[in-house]
């Protein structure tokens, strides 16, 4: 029966599948749907930008951004699904920057078998503890809060398009699918678009007023600009959790949205004659300017610090053990120096003698320094063969044992010819030279004692 089914499937093209068990027909349909989705995305973004330009409100036009941090990835029906750890939705415009933010930390229970991966990804990226006490646990409640946040931004009973980077599209789609499934809602009402495509259409319209940009390289520039480290480490715009965590500005979802907003403002505010304001269109970097230091703001920040606001690390955060059974925190505690050890090392350390060669060239050094350098330069740099042999206990070299015949004749004379290896059988068409076989003796060298 199985053999007949195999033969029938090979003859017909109806039930052909891949090695993963996926139907080829379904894969072709999904590929066509993806191409159609990209085409519709480009058309919709172009219509939005062109309409805003014609009505002269491109600076006030609002876009919705989304970024997702996740704990682990699981494969369901050959489709990756990401378990969210934190997500942020933000409303952005070129005139006002990030206007409103909806941020949530997920504290739902991790399924059995994925806790190790969740701990490792959390420790290496966003540092959010697994099953964090101050987060949300019900995905249906999360959907209701998100729907209320986007309700006022609806256009003709349709939620606004959600923009994220192309590299984060799957994470955002997985989040929307999980929230909609928990609330029993249709996930097709949310459209996830690429932020790079939005940049391309904005650049095609606004880079016409800039002479320092090449219009032909806009698609490449759009994918490259969001990978830069220009604003990745600017502090002050993180969520309440990542304010006190190492690497918070780099991985916090709220901070990532601010970085995208600053990138767009840096490129498109000048063509629209929008004045760049610190904290809105660009990060507030007053602490990097030594001539401008706000002492009052620093004092107020120090007075507002509260120990109770600092998130405490749980046992699960530092409980990731290596293959040798040692945690990262234990390794740092054992390998790092204590204060007493560091002070003893500094007291016992010898000062480093620095020789400035430029002083010797200028002639400003003393005679003692010059004499020491000349003595060092006069020392032989090479070691003789005798000293080297005695030092390494080596035997003296001897001439190689080479056959002297190689010096007399060439290599071609010693190679056998085809006539010697394959003598002719005889018959018509064979030359007299091929019929006669002559044996050649290899020439001998001198000193062999025979002729």
Automatic annotation (TrEMBL):
Residues 79-285 form the Maelstrom domain. GO terms for molecular function: sequence-specific DNA binding. GO terms for cellular component: nucleus; P granule. Residues 419-451 are annotated as: Disordered. Pfam families: Maelstrom. This is Protein maelstrom 2. It comes from the Eukaryota. One of its GO terms (biological process) is piRNA processing. Keywords: Cytoplasm, Differentiation, DNA-binding, Nucleus, RNA-mediated gene silencing. The keyword Cytoplasm applies. Belongs to the maelstrom family. The keyword Ion transport does not apply. It is found in: Cytoplasm; Nucleus.
């Amino acid at each position: 029966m199985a053999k007949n089914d195999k033969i029938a499937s090979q003859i017909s093209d109806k039930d052909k599948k891949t090695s993963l068990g996926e139907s080829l027909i379904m894969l072709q349909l999904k590929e066509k749907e993806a191409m159609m989705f990209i085409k519709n995305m480009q058309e919709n973004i172009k219509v939005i930008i062109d309409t805003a330009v014609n009505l002269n409100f491109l600076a006030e036009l609002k876009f919705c951004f989304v970024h997702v941090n996740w704990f682990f990835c699981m494969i369901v029906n050959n489709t990756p699904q990401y378990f969210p750890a934190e997500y942020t939705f933000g409303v952005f415009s070129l005139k006002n920057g990030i206007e409103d933010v909806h941020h949530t930390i997920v504290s739902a229970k991790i399924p059995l078998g994925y806790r190790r991966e969740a701990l490792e990804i959390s420790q290496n990226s966003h540092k959010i503890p697994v099953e964090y006490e101050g987060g949300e646990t019900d995905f249906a409640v999360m959907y209701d809060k998100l729907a209320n946040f986007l309700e006022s931004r609806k256009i003709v009973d349709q939620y606004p398009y959600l923009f994220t980077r192309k590299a984060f599209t799957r994470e955002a789609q997985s989040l929307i699918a999980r929230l909609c499934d928990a609330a029993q809602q249709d996930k097709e009402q949310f459209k996830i678009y690429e932020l790079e495509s939005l940049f391309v259409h904005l650049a095609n319209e606004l880079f016409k007023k800039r002479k320092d940009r090449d219009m032909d390289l806009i698609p490449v520039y759009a994918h490259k600009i969001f990978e830069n480290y220009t604003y990745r480490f600017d502090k002050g715009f993180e969520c309440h959790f990542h304010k006190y965590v190492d690497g918070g500005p780099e991985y916090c979802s709220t901070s990532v949205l601010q970085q995208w907003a600053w990138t767009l403002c840096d490129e498109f505010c000048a063509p629209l004659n929008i004045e760049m304001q610190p904290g809105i269109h660009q990060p507030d970097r007053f602490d990097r300017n030594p001539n401008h230091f706000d002492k009052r703001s620093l004092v107020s920040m120090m007075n507002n610090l509260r120990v109770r606001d600092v998130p405490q690390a749980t046992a699960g955060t530092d409980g990731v053990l290596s293959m040798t059974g040692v945690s990262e925190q234990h390794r740092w505690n054992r390998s790092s120096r204590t204060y007493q050890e560091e002070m003893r090392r500094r007291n016992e350390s010898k000062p480093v003698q620095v020789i400035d060669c430029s002083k010797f060239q200028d002639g400003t050094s003393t005679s003692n320094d010059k004499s020491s350098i000349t003595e060092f330069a006069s020392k032989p740099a090479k070691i003789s063969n005798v000293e080297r042999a005695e030092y390494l206990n080596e035997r003296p070299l001897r001439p190689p044992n080479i056959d002297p015949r190689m010096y007399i004749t060439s290599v071609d004379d010693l190679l056998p010819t085809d006539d010697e290896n394959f003598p002719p059988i005889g018959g018509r068409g064979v030359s007299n030279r091929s019929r006669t076989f002559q044996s050649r003796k290899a020439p001998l060298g001198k000193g062999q004692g025979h002729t």
